[in-house]
């Protein structure tokens, strides 16, 4: 808990520093002041409202026991096993099977599943994926994951606007070289940030999720199914959502080229499956 709190503070500080540095480069002292104000507002928004932003990105609709009794009951049962408060339940109108958890703490958490995952997975596989997402809530990963989404969205926005902002606050127009540098480095920095935050936490969520559902092999099977489906069924969302939220899912829902795999936000699914199957056989999850 302390480690995750420190990580969250680090992310919010990093976001502020990045904004201020780019603001000074692009707008001089005036740009620095504007960037500082924007960074403070962004950090406030990240803590209180970024989960709602992510749910809106995917047009997620909240459901209850009366409309989706089987899904709601499954999440309720697994939440009790994990000793967690019942999260809000959302359905994402996408055909690709996937899911994510969001929120600022276990008392204000949400689990969102796509329409496709309820059709593609069997009951035990779906339970395992939901347990994986509840593990993120139990491990208090969700706030950090959601703040990363805001930071990455902001870095992407900076890259898009850099070309149009006059450098140094002058009236000479934009500096093409500085704009080019920001356009290249901001998306790379964003992707590296996602990878640094997400990869080790997926292993921990796999282990904890397997313990919650009691079926490591079913989680391994679900990860394989989701990865295969993600290669065939696109996630129809905006470019901003695509860039900023891939780390929130158990399997990256957006396919990328070889260059992007260098900065993958997730460990290799094959490696995760091997660790889960070892846990199925021996009861022990190997991190090394």
Provide an overview of this structure.
It is a single chain. The chain has helices at 2-57, 69-81, 115-120, 123-138, 142-161, 176-213, 216-232, 239-245, 258-261, 269-282; strands at residues 61-63, 88-92, 99-103, 109-114. It has a 4-stranded mixed beta sheet with strand order 1-2-4-3, sandwiched between helices. Strand 3 and strand 4 form a beta hairpin. Residues 167-174 and 257-262 have low confidence and may be disordered. Helix 2 packs across helix 4 (123-138) and helix 5 packs antiparallel against helix 6 (176-213). It is α+β, with helices and mostly antiparallel strands.
Topology:
Elements: H1 2-57, E1 61-63, H2 69-81, E2 88-92, E3 99-103, E4 109-114, H3 115-120, H4 123-138, H5 142-161, H6 176-213, H7 216-232, H8 239-245, H9 258-261, H10 269-282
Parallel strand pairs: 2-4
Antiparallel strand pairs: 1-2, 3-4
Keywords:
4 strands, 288 residues, alpha+beta, 66% helix, four-stranded mixed β-sheet, globular
């Amino acid at each position: 808990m302390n480690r995750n709190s420190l990580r969250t503070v680090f992310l919010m500080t990093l976001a502020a520093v990045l904004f201020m540095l780019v603001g000074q480069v692009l707008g001089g002292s005036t740009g620095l002041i504007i960037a500082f104000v924007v960074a403070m507002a962004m950090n406030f928004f990240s803590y209180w409202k970024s989960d709602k932003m992510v749910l809106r990105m995917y047009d997620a609709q909240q459901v209850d026991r009366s409309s989706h009794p089987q899904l709601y009951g499954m999440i309720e049962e697994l939440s009790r096993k994990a000793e967690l408060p019942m999260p809000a339940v959302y359905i994402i109108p996408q055909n690709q099977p996937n899911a994510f958890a969001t929120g600022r703490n276990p008392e204000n958490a949400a689990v969102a599943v796509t329409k496709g995952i309820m059709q593609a997975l069997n009951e035990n596989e779906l339970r395992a994926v939901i347990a994986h997402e509840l593990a993120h809530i139990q491990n208090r990963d969700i706030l950090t994951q959601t703040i990363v989404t805001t930071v990455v969205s902001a870095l992407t926005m900076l890259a898009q606007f850099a070309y149009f902002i006059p450098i140094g606050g002058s009236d000479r127009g934009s500096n093409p070289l500085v704009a080019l540098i920001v356009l290249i480095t901001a998306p790379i920095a964003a992707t590296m940030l996602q990878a640094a935050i997400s990869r080790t936490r997926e292993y921990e969520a796999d282990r904890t999720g397997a313990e919650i559902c009691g079926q490591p092999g079913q989680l391994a099977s679900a990860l394989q199914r989701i990865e295969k489906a993600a290669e065939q069924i696109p996630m129809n969302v905006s470019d901003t959502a695509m860039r900023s939220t891939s780390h929130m899912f158990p399997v990256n829902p957006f396919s990328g080229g070889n260059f992007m795999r260098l900065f993958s936000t997730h460990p290799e699914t094959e490696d995760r499956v091997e660790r889960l199957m070892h846990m199925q056989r021996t009861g022990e999850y190997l991190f090394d």
